[in-house]
Design a protein that fits this description.
By secondary structure, this protein is mainly alpha-helical. It has three helices and two strands; from the N terminus they run ααβαβ. A two-stranded parallel ribbon has the order 1-2. It is globular, with a radius of gyration of 15 Å.
Amino acid sequence: MDLVLFEDALEHLCRVHRHIRMGRGHALLVGVGGSGKQSLTRIAAFTAGCTVFEITLSRGYGEEEFREDLKQLYQLVGIEKKKVVFL
């Protein structure tokens, strides 16, 4: 797949990648919708060798479903010792 990344996108990608690679690294990406935050985070996670964990909301999504999703996340991180990006 051919990708075209602008210089600003590469700078942001490097920043996100650096945060992911740090021990206990975290970042809150804030910006206008459609600016590529999710895409750059997915690329950074892939290059850092991390798994992307994402919660998908639906009409009946509530506290119980959220707790189940957190259980899955804790299973990946705590027991299976995988590097995970929570998106």
